[in-house]
Amino acid sequence: MDYFLKTRKDFLNFFKSKGHTVVPSSSLVPDDPSVLLTTAGMQQFKRYYTGELNPESDFGSHRATSLQKCFRTSDIEEVGDDTHLTFFEMMGNFSFGPVGSDDPTDAETGGYFKRSAIVWAWEFLTNVLELAPERLWVTVFEGDGDTPKDHEAYAVWKNEVGIPQERIFWGKRADNFWGPTGNQGPCGPTTEIYIAPTPEHARQGKGVEVWNVVFNEYYATAGADGAFKYKKVDSPGIDTGMGFERLLATLEGAANVYETSAFVPIVSAVRQAAAGISERDIHILADHIRASSFLIADGIVPSNKEAGYVLRRLLRKIIAVRITNDIHADVFQIGYEAVTKMFAGIYPAVGEAEKILGVWREEQGKFEVSIAKGLRELESLKTAALTGNAAFGLYQTYGLPKELTLEFAKKTSPDFENEFAAEEKKHQDTSRAGAQKKFGGHGLVLDTGELKAGNEEELSRVIRMHTATHLLQWALRTVLGEGVHQMGSDINPERLRFDFNFDRKLTSEEIARVADLSNEVVKKDLPVYYQEMPKEQALSSGALSFFKQKYPDVVKVYSIGSQSSGGVVSAEFCGGPHVEHTGTIGEIRIIKEEAVGKGVRRIRASVV
Known about the structure:
By secondary structure, the protein is an alpha+beta fold. It is built from 19 helices and 18 strands.
């Protein structure tokens, strides 16, 4: 049976039959400054839970279901074993409230809560997937000093679903309370569903988690001490997550995720291209090739910061594995061909071979030159035993991974590993201290390359200035003509810089007019919001884009103003973050206008 395609179809169709709108996966690049990459299925829906966006107008219902692309950086170093992945897919169903009928037999599109979420989860697992009910067991939140025991979920499992009491277990916050993502947001107690190898294991509470059902009945905000404060929300929601690869392992009886239909074609291709290498290295290559393909498809390119750095780590690890195993075949291209056969029909951007292989080959070329220099330096050291300190220096200067250093070093010092680790920690501490010094002693909470902030106050300020740059571009185009386009920007808590194409110095009257137009929009307190849409649709709608930027197939377009508020003032491709209403920006003050190159001008401004 083709579980890879069938399970997707079964899941989405099941929840579609329950009044849910099927929503396509959003980009791996999130509209959420608190996270680097999309880590959960609910992230694209976060603003529906907070009430900032209206699901009824966007989806036609208060219910949605999706298979969401996700990436978690915390597991990069663990990849290679039987369970850890970087990129994965999350199946989920969502309710945004307000709760209407929580009767799971009602055919409606309003919000629902614990009763429907639990009954439907059980129905899908036992009726659609035909998992044996006696092998399933669940956990519910036992409560603590911050939030109470979840008696309601317990009662639904026991009285409506009919799970025996001995297969319902109470769980602590670490296991049965989810969220928020970042330093604030919706969150709540969870119930987790497990499948055991046998009914006896189920009675003992042993097995694999297959589904996490979150009851978003709180909104959490982190205080100055980092501790969360929880407030009950008026319209609770449902957020569920079921790891697609893990579910396939259960359905297919696979020993691990790499033996499921989500990986077998990729693993087989890698094994054929790199015969004789370890299973761990096969897993690393399969995961990293698949993950890199999706990152590049969503517009990420290798760099030394943020998501680009994550991609660079993956690609350079692939190269390191190639070199240490003396693999002569282009294992990335071979693995990618398997990836695109599996996923291009689901995510068309993954099939853009020219773009994805182009990024791979460019990064491979850069890294191999750097490695060659590092190996020459290693040879020139001519030490009796290479120290961990010296090896870390090679890593810092040339990007020479520790694995390659060990491969080519004739001998290492007895305490090599501890020395390397100590140097690495020293570097991390120095970097952290530098960031704290630069950003007011708080460390960076946001650094996208364009926006930089060190704490919550600074974050609020740079977000205000980011939206101000959109107004400045609109005003510049109004005053100087529609040939004006953004050429770059940089924003920190003190000021914003906005570069644009223009062939002469602006007059004082033009500068004043740009400031006045921008501030008129601020005073109108217009709404600021975004929509996701295909790139071509966004371009044809007239939304502005930064000409140097590579965009994914699906983009976010931020708009200022709406038809009900008198018309859209500005619409631009942008990943965010932004204010919700222009009135919160404050007065925009242009400090200076200057030339930065032939045909390029710069505005320096601030908000007060």
